[in-house]
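REQUEST FORM: STRUCTURE PREDICTION
Request ID: SP-0412
Submitted by: Lab K.M.
Chain count: 1
Length (residues): 175
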Amino acid sequence: MHKIREATPSDALMLHEHVTAVLSERLATISSRAEAVPLENIGARIAARAASANSALFIAEVGQTIVGTLDFEGYQHSQERHGGRLGMAVRREHRGRGVGTSLVEALISWASQHSVTRLELEVFSNNPQAIRLYERLGFRQEGSRVGAVIVAGEAVDVVQMARRLVANPRMDAQR
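STATUS: Completed
RESULT:
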């Protein structure tokens, strides 16, 4: 069974190993990187999320191994501070076991305590499993960037999704 918690500075090495493992899968459904993420960058990201009132970095762990992450970066502009963008990565052998669901649910719970009412994300259109997960968790498709990325020589759309945690009656009436 997995456990969800916020990352701490002592998690930097394990988080680096997790990121390296996910990127080594070379999935056609995530952005590719030419080189590994430096360990210093991971430590800096943990510190930045901890220092921000509207950002968080969650990890899912089984035993002493990180099997999933959800990085939420809150927007800094005064008119957008109620929202931010998330990115999530779950190791192959733990997909379909509720890790992604647990990570998003942890973010939703955290957001309600930190004045965050809008969660945004982007997902490649060639990742229908992730799109279904996000829709099941209340995210709605708001648009797409047509042909925004090239994967294996093919143009792939980037689907933009969001979930509002507090209903705005004026906005809902306009839909």
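NOTES: The chain has a mean pLDDT of 89.
Reviewed by: T.R.
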